[in-house]
Specification:
The protein is 0% helix and 57% strand. The chain is mainly beta.
Length: 262
Amino acid sequence: ELHLKQLQEIIITQSNQAKYNKFRDGILQYTEGTLYYFEHTGEEAWKVLLAIHDPIIETSSESIYIVDRDRKQIVRLDHKGKIIYRYTLEGRAKVVKVGDVDDIVLIYEESEKNEKAITLLDRNGRKSSDIKITQGDIIAMSLSVEHNSIAVGMLDTTGESLQTHLLNYDLKGNLISSTNLEDNLIYNMFYDREGKLIVIKDNEVTALVKDKAKWSVEVDLIKTTKTIDNLAVVVYGNIENNKQLLKKSEDIIIIQKNGKLN
């Protein structure tokens, strides 16, 4: 069941460089090198100067992760803005995913020599495993520590046509399975709380269990997506005529964890 809390008014910085992320019951604002946290009441709780240009920002339930692509670092902060660790990457971070409650970090990085790898960090910022990528580009990733699983969407451009592969690894970096999705691009994916892998492709949202579809919803022209606490996925796009809807409409659609539409 989803519970939504109304956020009171906060001051929005008029800057094209400002970034905003939901965190706990409030909002993170990153602008001009400083990270701010506002409570849901709109009050500023804390701020910390990081001096990072155009960072990647990810969060877990209790921590904030700031990726400095220029310095090749990832910085973990606690919910009060205190720095827990800094980890120096071997390459430039391209995609970063964080475990919601366990603070395990998954990083796809590329070196200046075009060497590609996926690195897994434990909650203390130590490398626990890595996966060498020998072909293609990683376009999406997700992890579930509870189910010992990493999902990787890989785009292969070496053949005559684009091919997308869905790769599944365990947390030690061992390949478990590989599925060819042909020319279906993956926009995003995440594990829900039951361990189903929710894959958002260019025209479909599908829930997979051991590489088999549990349910699927057809969507045309997906424009943007967002997950809600690993319980549902919000899609803005066109719903195609299908068994669940009798009409075609363009709207914000909430797909629950069982595939039902709100």
